[in-house]
Amino acid sequence: MIILLILFNFTPMHSYETNLTGTLSLLLYVIFFTTFLIFLPTKGAGGWSPLVSNKYQWLQIDLGERMEITAIATQGGYGSSDWVTSYLLMFSDSGRNWKQYRQEESIWGFSGNTNADSVVYYKLQHSIKARFLRFIPLDWNPNGRIGMRIEVYGCSYRSEVVDFDGKSFLLYRFDEKSINSLKDVISFKFKTMESDGILLHRKGQNGNFITLELIKGKLFLFINSGDTKLHSTNSLINITTGSLLDDQHWHSVLIEHFNKQVNFTVDKHTQHFHAKGEFNYLDLNYELSFGGTLAAGKSVPFSHRNFHGCFENLYCNGVNVINLAKRQKPQIYIMGNVSFSCSQPQTVPVTFLGSGSYLSLRGSSGQDEISVSFQFRTWNKMGFLLSSNFHQHSGGLLLYLHDGKIRLNLFKLGKQQSDVTAGAELNNGQWHSISLAAKRNHLSIMIDNDVTSVLHLVLPMQIYSGDIYYFGGDSDFECKNPFGGFQGCMRQISISNKVVDLILVQQSIFGNFSDLQIDLCGLIDRCLPNYCEHGGECSQSWNSFYCNCTNTGYMGATCHSSIYEQSCEAYKHRGNTSGFYYIDSDGSGPLGPFLVYCNMTDTAWTIVQHNSSDFTRVKSSNRENPHTVFFKYTANTEQLQATINHAEHCEQEFAYHCKKSRLLNKRDGIPLSWWVGRTNETQTYWGGSLPDVQKCTCGLEGNCIDSQYYCNCDADRNEWTNDTGFLSYKEHLPVTQIVITDTDRPNSEAAYKLGPLLCRGDSGTASRQKGFLGCIRSLQLNGIALDLEERAKITPGVDPGCPGHCSSYGNLCHNGGKCKEKHSGFSCDCSFSAYSGPFCLNEISAYFGSGSSVTYNFQEYYTLSKNSSSHAASFHGDMTLIRETITLSFRTTRTPTLLLYVGSFYKEYLSVILARNGSLQIRYKLDSHQEPDVFNSNFKNMADGQLHHVKINREEGVLFVEVNQNAREQVTLSSGIEFNAIKSLVLGKILENSDVDQETMKANSQGFTGCLSSVQFNHIAPLKAALHHSSLAPVTVKGHVAESNCGTLTGAESTLSETTHSFADHSGPIDEGEPLANAIRSDSAIIGGVIAVVIFILLCITAIAIRIYQQKSLYKKNETKRAENEDCAETALKTELTVQNRVNENQKEYFF
Description:
Keywords: Disulfide bond, EGF-like domain, Membrane, Repeat, Signal, Transmembrane, Transmembrane helix. The chain is mainly β.
C-alpha cells in the first residue's frame, strides 16, 4: 500500500489566480492504494476558502500524472462557518478541455457538508482516470463562505498510448499459420477531436472483414462474414452506437465475438447481435490495422479517412498491440508518423448554459470590413448566435438559428435591409463552422467550409464595424432577439482574422460573459440510450428529449402505451359493435398490434383467422407420404401466445369427415393422424376430448357408432361419418399443423376443416401449469440482460447451455432441410427444400411432355373467410424481391425451349431458356419500359440429352450464374433492382398471354419436352409442390407431367423409368355448413338421391371425356372445361356426403 500525503499552504490571492489555487491554506490528503479503499479523516487547521464566494470559484488539483480516482471526501473549513453544501466534480488529462463527472448519463452534483467538521464520503460508481481534478462549489453555508478540505482516494494508473496524425496507422499481421479463433476480444480506449476516421479494420483471406469507423461522432461497426467479391448485402451488418465521441475525451470500446454472437460496447452501452453468413467465426489469418488502412475503400464498400487522435491500452485477444509496436516486433508495421505519447490540442470550447448566457468580445470599430468566424454545436432548432451594432449605431447584423438553418438579418436605422438563409439541419449535435465576411457593401457567408456553397450578397448600404460582438444571450442590440438565447457549445472564435483566447476571457482579462462554462463543452446526447419504445423516433433539445410516436400504434412520452385494446372484451366494454379491430395482446410490451375480428354477442369473441378455412379433401396419403398442412395465422406465434394467455377461454373447432380413414390404430396404438399446436408437440386427442387421452368426443360420451372404438372414424366403415368438436386446452392452441396418413386404401378418403381461433374473456389470474421443460435464452429484466449461464451453474435442476440432437446431427439434413428437435431424436424438415426423404437427399424430378406446364401462383393463394375479405389485401400484399436464388436441373434435346419463367403483375419477368444453338440464356426485365437484360452462358450446347445443373443468384443489380458447378459468371443488370409484385412461376410452357420479348416467345412456342429436377425458387419448390402437394399448394398442372427418376439416371435410361401420377384437382371446397346435417329421413329420398347422383356422375364422366378429346383446342376453352369438371367433382363430394348421412341416420333410428 502506498500513502502519499500532500500539504499545500496558500496565501491570499485575488482575481483569476484565486480560481486556480484558492486562498488561505489547504490541508489535502491524497491516498493511493493498490488493493482496497482507505479513508483517513482530515486533521489540522486550514482549508481552502476564496476571498469572494460566487459560482466562478473552484479548487483545482494536479496529481502529477494520470491516476485512477475511486472515491472523494470533503469537510468544511477548520473551526469556521465555511462549508460547501453541493459541488460539481470536473476532471481533465491536461488541465484543459474539462469534463463533468456524470453518474448514469446524467449530470451529477455531489451533496456536500452541513457543518465544518463532519466528513462526507463518496465512492464513485465508476472511477475517473485523470491527472487534474476540479471542485466547483454550487451552494454553501448562507451564513458563511465557501470552505473545503478534500481527500482523494485512488491508485496509480498505468497505460500505453499511441498517437495517430490522420495519415499514419499500425498494421498487425498474424502468423502465416491460419488461426481460426472461435472467440475474439478487442478492447481499447480512444479520444479525438475529429468526427470521422477509421479506428480498426480487419480482414481475412476469405474476404471477411470487420471495420470500426467513426462517422459524425458516432461509431459504426461493419461486419461482413461473406465473400466481399460478391458484394453480398445479406452478409453485411451495420451497427451504430455512441454519440458526440469527438469531444477529445477518452471513450472505451469492447468488441467480443463468439461463434455468431457479437457484443459491441461503447462507454457501457452494449448491443448484442448475431453475425450473418455461413461461418461461425471470422478468420483472423491475414491482417489487422488500427487507425486506418493501406487503401481505404478498396476492400470494403465504403471509403474514408484515417483516424486522427490517440489510442490507449489496445488489446487484441490478450495481446498488447501498442507494447509490440513500441518494442518494434516484426508482426507490427508502423505506417507513417506514429508517436507513443498523446498530444493535447489547445482548442478551448465554451458552453452556453441558458437563454441568458452570453459572451461579449471587443473588435476594431470603424473598419470598412467585418470578419467573424466560429464553430458551434447544439440540439436546439432556434437560438441567437451573433449580433453586432455597426459603427455609430448606423445599423447592425443579427445571426441566428431558425428551424435548424442559419438566418442573417441586416438592419439600418431600425429597418430591415436584408434577410438571407443558409445551411440545413445544423442542430444535429455536430460541430458546424460559420464564416461571415463583409467589406463595404459586399457580404458572404460560408457554412462548414464548403466553398462551393458560399452565399454572396450585394447590400444597399455601406458596412462599418462596431466595437462589440455579442455571442448568444440578449444584447443591447436595437432589435431584440425574439428566439431565445443560444444553448450549446462554441469554439475557435475569430474576430478580424484573430483567434480569441478564451482563457483570457475566463481570467477576466479580455471580454465579458455571463452563465458560461469555459474550457469544456457540456453538450450531452439525451437520445443515448434511446428511451423511445416501439420504434418511436427520438429528437432532443438542450434540456429534454421528445419521442415522435406517429404510425407506431403507441402513445405517451416514450411511446409506451398502446392506443389499441388488449382484446375484444375490452372493446365491448367501450361499446363497440362487431367488426375488425387491432388488438395489442401484451399491452405496452414489445409485441405489436394485429388485426382480428370481434364478434360482439353476449360474449365478446376474439377471432383470429388462418390461411386454410375451407374443407379440404384428402386421398392417397400414408405414413411414407403423409398429407401435411401448415396453418399460418394473421398474428405471429408470440402475439398468439399473448392473446391466449390473456384470455379466459379459447377454443378451435376441428371437423374431420372420413370414409375408411382412421384416426387411431387400435392394434398397435400408433396414431394414424395427429395435429401439432404452438408447443410443437404432437397431439392425438381430437375435438371435444382431453389432452393425453387418445379419444374423440364420442369416446368420452360413450356414443361412438362402434362401441369398440373411441372415435367414429376408427370404425373404418365404407361410409361417411365424422368426428367433430372443439379443441379447448389453451396451452396447446392454436393448431399449427395437421398430418393425415390413412387415405391410401381403396375407397378411403377424408375431408377436414379447421375453424379460426376463438378466445373470450380477460384472465387476470395465474394459471397452474406444469414446470417448464426446454431452453430459455435472452432473458431481460427491466431491460437488463441476465447472465443465465452463471445462474444456471448454481441452480439445481438447471444446466448452462442448450444441448440438443441438432447440434450433433444437424449436418445430416441436406439441401436446405432444417433440423428439428424431438424428445428422443431429431428429424429433417424438407418443407422448404426441393428434395425429399428422411435427410432431404431424394431428388424430385418430372418428365414434361409436349405442351405441358406447371404454374405456381404467388398471389391470391391464401384466402380468408367470407366476412373478412376487406382484410385480405392487408394480410397478403404484393411480393417484391430485390434478390432471389434459383436452382434447377434439366435434360432435353429440343431447342429453342423455355425452362423457367417468372412473371409479375407489372409486366416484369425473368425467363430461363435454351436458345436455338442450345446455349443457356437468362433474360431479366425489371423495368417494363426497358428492354430485358440478357445473360449468355459460355457453356457448350446444353440440349445434348445430358443432365445439367444451373444455379442463379441475383443480389439487387448483380447477377451470378453457375452452370454444372463450374466457376461463377457475373453480370450487372441495368433494368432495375426490384422485381415487383411477382405473380406466378411457370415450368414448361406459358399458357396465358404474357408480354415477353421475341426470343422468349419463340422458346415458349416450342414448350419444353424433357426432364426437370430439383427446381427451387427462394424457399419455394414448385415441382415438389405439384407432384406431392398439389391439393394444398397454389399450383396448376396442364398436360402430361409425370414424376420420374430422370434426374438421377443417364440420358438413355431417363425415358424408361417414368412413373405417372394424376394431377386432376379434386380438392374443391365443401359447404361451410355441417356436411352431414341436412338429412331427409325417408327411404324414397335415399333411392331418389342415389339415382340423381349416378346420373350426375355419368354426366361428369361425359364432360371429362369431351375435355380430353378437345385437349388441343384453345387454352381458354380448356380452362372452362376444367372449371366445369371441378364443379362436378365438388358437387359429387357434397352429394355423396349428404346421401351417406341419410343412410347413417336411418341406421341409427332403426337399429336394435
